[in-house]
Design goal:
The complex is a heterodimer of chains A (333) and B (330). With 333 residues, chain A is an alpha/beta fold. Chain A is 44% helix and 21% strand. Chain A has a 9-stranded parallel sheet with strand order 2-5-7-8-9-10-11-1-12. Chain A has a 3-stranded mixed sheet with strand order 3-4-6. Chain B has one domain (21-73, 107-329): TIM Barrel (Alpha-Beta Barrel).
Chain lengths: 333, 330
Amino acid sequence: MSVWASPLGGYPRSRVVRRALRDYERGLLGYGELERVVGEASSLIIGSQLSSGLTYVVDGMVDWHDIFRPFIESWRNVTASGLLRYFDNNFFYRIPVFTEKPEASKLVWAPRVRRYAPLAEPSGLKIVVPGPVTFTSMSINKTGYSNEELAEAIAKLLADEVKAAIEAGASMVQVDEPMLADHDATRDEALLAVELVNSIVASAGGAKTALALYFDVPRGEVYDAILDVKANCISLDVVDAPERALKLIESKGFSDHCGILGLVNSRTIYDDPVDKLVEVALRVARSSKVGEMGVTTTTWLDLIPYSYSLRKTYLLGVLTLKIQENVGVAGGV
Amino acid sequence: MGYSVPRKFPTTVVGSYPKMPSALEAIKRRRSGEISESEFNEMVKVAVRDVVEDHLWAGVDIISDGEQAREDMVVYFAERFKGYSVGDWVRVFDNEYFRKPVVTGRVEWLRPITVELWEYASSISAGRPVKGILTGPYTMIEWSFDLHYRDRRELILDLAKAIRREVEELVRRGARYIQIDEPALSTRPWREDAELLKEALDIIFKGLEAKRIVHICFGRLERILPYILDYPVDQFDLEMKNSNFRLLPYLKEYGYNKEIGFGVVDVHSFQVESVKEIKEAIDKLMKTDIVSPEKAYIDPDCGLKRLPRDIAKAKLKNMVEAARQAREEW
């Protein structure tokens, strides 16, 4: 079994980035200088992942205010409005308000990929997009179209994003649908999400693709629908509610997908119990019979301070190495 | 000077209010070590006076100090309890960050925290009661990092004991309304978490001679409603407007029998609700036949801190007028 690692998503901002963004917003810093600061910070974050031996790395997305914002700012017919709590975190996102079906005015990922993919070598650069069902359900829909129609329109733009990012050199595409892990998510929502995620990952060519669910563990009937997704991998948080997560995996497995396990807790700052987590990974490997395992963080790393995000990156590398020693071989790009 | 709180539909606030410039300056100077805690409180009193004036202008019956001293609802207490350390920066939204506290030792109450500003607000409130408002133990643990206990129950119970000491100080000095804020509870709506908080509230409220209130907002409260209804409180103060009063049928279904703090003003919207709109919300509560007018406290969904001051004032003014009209009808 091949085993590889990748952080789930974005990183927190260092002090330098926070100050640069603040100065930029106050008009004290030009866009070019902000770009330079963000570029340096992203390079350092990529470097920390490379030195930890991670197979797929992210650029850190340190200039994103939340997972939806860069897309809102790159699309017409949608704006960011008031703040709302982001799942069960003490973090708030700005609610997207759609007034018509969105249209892209520029691409989010392709320019970033051109900039950072060369720095990520020999690892691959992963891009992350918000899933259309999560995007729609966390937005206000004033378009006059149904939520399903809005989600389809979003999916189309995300598919274009993915296609351009792959052409620019991205190695992996992850679609985040944390809403599907919510206790109230329905099978119908899961079916819609699967259909739309399939349309997005179809644009990824031969790159590795994943559907990521986190902040909780999906209910059985939702997960049954998710197992039909055409992404290569399914990513689950197995630390936040370990018994429910392991019960789900042991009873339903990952079908023919590679399983990505959120093992390093990215909402706490203590060192994760690596040996105990190796046991969890072995338990999953035995029960689900996956041929390929990804190891990741429970959620994005931007909910903890910057210094701890680097520590967690290191621990992710150590954990993956130990799992590899026990169950298999290192996975490569 | 006495003030008679209306028997029906008394109006109140959840607590926080837009930060006045003097409060922001005081927080900044205290953080940089330029001023002591007592100098800090003196500076903040200028802001508290502004808040109280706004509350009185709007006609709110049970007011607050606007939580002007609180940079953040968790950080404020963490910086003043023993056992917490100043944390590193974590984002709240956009490029706004706070120092997320870290529990690094046994949590203990050291000295009165909120009392001085509560007393000051009471001294200028024209007799209107001022709520004593404290961040609850569940929210304290959920929105801090823990490097000491690594056992949530042990930590929450120690926090409850520390909060209890502060509550005792407030009640000893005359506070008649004690509110524990638990916004984190509805974000993790699991039975075991609800039961954990009940254990903590038993410590905080046991034998207390004051109105015992728990404020909970947003999230999926309906999931844990059956497990919180026997909390040792007189009143649940609930966000209702933002979620379009979704919770009302659940309250009816579960035979809700406590007082309710009924959120009629959306704190996430800059649009000022009209008197008519707020009155209709109160009518909706009455028509659902859950509580009597004597058990319905009318207030915003949550703290008003994220609104511009003029909008916050206008919302309170309309709320008070709607409650007055409701008193005539119900």
